[in-house]
Amino acid sequence: MIITRLAWQSIMNRKFTTLLTILSIAISTMLLLGVEKIRSAARTSFINTISGTDLVVGSRTGGVQLLLYSVFHIGDATANVTWKTLEDIKKRKEVKWIVPIALGDSHRGYRVVGTTREYFNRFRYRRNIPLRIAEGHQFSDLFDAVLGADVARKLNYKIGNKIVLAHGTGPVSIGKDHGDTPFQVSGILAPTGTPVDRAVHVSMEAIEAIHVGWETGAFNDQGEKNSPENLRKMDLSPKEVTAMYVGLKTKMSTFSLQRWINTYLHESITAILPGVVFGQLWSMIGSVEKTLFIVSSLVVFTAILGMIISILASLNERRREMAILRAIGAKPVQVFTLFTVEATTIAFLGVIFGFIGLYGVLFLIQPFIESFTGLYFEISAPEWNEIILMITIVGAGFLAGIIPALQAYRTSLSDGLMIRG
Amino acid sequence: MFVQNNYPAISLSNLYFSWGSSGNNFRIKITDFQLKKNESVILVGPSGSGKSTLLSIICGILRPQKGSIQILGENTENMSNSVRDCFRSDHIGIIFQQFNLLPYLSAIDNVLLPLYFSKVRKEASGKTISKISAESKRLLDVLGITSETLGMQKADTLSIGQQQRVAAARAFIGSPELIIADEPTSSLDEENQVEFLDQLFSQKEATGASLLMVSHNTQISKRFDRLIELEKICDTSSKKEKF
User: Fold this and answer.
1) Cβ B81–A1 below 8 Å, yes or no?
2) Across the interface, do A416 and B62 touch by the CB < 8 Å criterion?
3) What are the residues whose beta carbons fall under 8 Å from the beta carbon of B191, sequence distance 6 or more?
């Protein structure tokens, strides 16, 4: 008991250096726990890039590839799915809603997503947040486009601006644009932190319309026939989709419908559970989080090293103190304990302050962080892995304290009473 | 640990101690040395004559290679380290030349420190916290440190003279039977020396302790019952003391 008190008073006596040591441990703890928080927030945010969609369906391909092109608009589909297949799936009793996605065009590097109006009601991201139209309205005319937040911001588009879509998805599209069928910006979506921000949304019919004359793969100008006025009169009901988002009445039927789709006889198609494939994808890019974790662990290690150094540096001036304690009857073991208690206390205080600091900062910046980065930090009681991390840091402080404590132990044995101030 | 009263405070016989085994190392040989109960002895000798080493042996910090050490009738040379540490804290009060105090504790807390390590001395100074605290204040006041003001100050804010008195109060608290002082006055000016010794001796009388003081200052020796020159009792053989 007296040893604990002496340790505490000795810490308080060297307030300034101890405070610096505590601060460095606190900051490294903040960093380590912060990385842990960011990691789990990033994972949650990534896995829930689309939520509320039970199955994503596309032509037969790997799950990761289907997810990449249908949700992240990365890469291209190898084949499309016929509209009849969509109708067949829609007829299944398990299906609550189905939203088609038609890809393959772009606007100045941003993907064009052909879809239905239902898309804006059904698409959910992260914590089941629906899309919100910040300005304007959904497409009502054939040549209306709804822009993602990034598209509008980067290209500085306002409601009513005319934009021209390009055939294909390459960044350069000279000579391949749908120049005779310009679109008008009808709405701009609020930022979501998902690939939706970088997409231009138009109706399925519009996709059909701008491809009239492209049936051979190259544009065959048929003059009058391609004028917007003429296109409006044509039957533009969609014949193909690239992918579809499917919502089910009950999650129980997810696997049976997935099996039905995967064994659908009329066309080779694949259905994936987005959450499952997101998990696979995340584990592929998971080495980044490991690297972050290692780096912040090294920072903690450095801070603890700093603590050992500061205690070791004080040892010489404290030889006197040890001789006094020995003279009044303290055992060398008690001198040893004094130093380990000191180191452990410093590490403990550092961890506590780091923890409080992190939660304080999170509390302050949480509202801004979500709107800027799309990462949502849940402020709740610490998770088990965080508690284990904190205990580990205190434990490391204790183990580190053994080094100066052993030194003190040996000094107090050899010095005895004989140190001359 | 009950210690019978009629034994000498210190009794050394055929003591042999050497720092290491090589022939060049510093060695101490003492055939016979006695400090009687209630006696005060001043041990003089030039620096490097082994005074401090001898005190360490008596206090049980160093273990002699040969011979016997009896403190208050107890043979300490064969005690385990931990038992010797307890024995020291129960029966011996030690005053150093200087830097006696833990700088981060108040004067009173410094005085109380030995009681945390020795049950015997804690019980001797009163069982309750208020009695113990009163005793520490009384000792400080007796030794010329106003407990209400200086007693509350951190030890490192006191002058050296004041620190030595606090150290004396710490040595005497709980009335240990033996007081060992290692040149406690050498850092004081003459006026302070006289006053300090007056107070030291009056406390010694009050508690009935035996006092062994090491010094190279023979001027103060007239206050002591006996003056012993280390060279007379001790066969040292080395050019230099190790510390």
Assistant:
1) no
2) yes
3) none
pLDDT in tens, B21-45: 666 677 788 888 889 888 999 988 8
Nearest residue on chain B to A8, judged by CA atoms? B104
How far away is chain B from the Cα of A314, in angstroms, using its nearest Cα?
14
* Judgement on whether residues A234 and A310 belong to the same structural domain of the protein: no
Residues A156, A206 within the same domain? yes
A364 and A221 in a single domain? The answer is no
Q: Does A331 touch chain B (CB under 8 A)?
A: yes
Residue A83 in domain: yes
Counted domains in chain A:
2
Partner-chain contact B94 A420, CB within 8 Å = no
Clarify whether residues A64 and A28 are in a common domain: no
Angstrom distance (rounded) from CA A158 to CA A112: 17
Kindly determine whether residue A321 and residue B102, on different chains, have CB atoms separated by under 8 Å.
yes
Same domain, A293 and A411: yes
Under an 8 A CB cutoff, do A1 and B62 touch? no
Find residues 1-20 of chain A whose CB sits inside 8 Å of chain B. 1-2, 6, 9-10, 12-13
Q: For an interface test with B, give the residue of A10, A337, A412, A418 to mutate (most B CBs within 10 A).
A: A418
Do A29 and A72 lie in a common domain? no
In a shared domain, residues A71 and A210? yes
Query: What pTM value is reported for the model?
Result: 0.72
pLDDT per residue over A26-60, tens digit each?
A: 998 998 888 888 888 887 777 777 888 889 999 99
Is the Cβ of A179 closer than 8 Å to some Cβ of chain B?
A: no
Taking CB atoms and an 8 Å limit, are A417 and B55 in contact across chains?
A: yes
Which element (helix H / strand E) includes A24?
helix A15-47
User: Which structural domain range is residue A189 located in?
Assistant: 55-272
Domain boundaries, chain B: 10-233
> Any bridge partners for residue A144, and if so which?
A184
**Can you tell me the distance from the alpha carbon of A264 to that of A205, in angstroms, rounded to the nearest whole number?**
26
Domain boundary among A212, A242, A272: A272
In a domain, A169, yes or no: yes
Closest Cα to residue A82, out of A238, A272, A248, A246? A238
Question: In whole angstroms, what is the distance from residue A376 CA to residue B109 CA?
Answer: 52
CATH architecture for the domain at B10-233: 3-Layer(aba) Sandwich (3.40)
Q: What is the pLDDT of residues B140-190, one digit of tens each?
A: 888 888 888 888 888 888 888 889 889 999 999 988 999 999 888 888 888
Residue B92 to residues A94, A149, B120: CA-CA distances in angstroms? 90, 82, 11
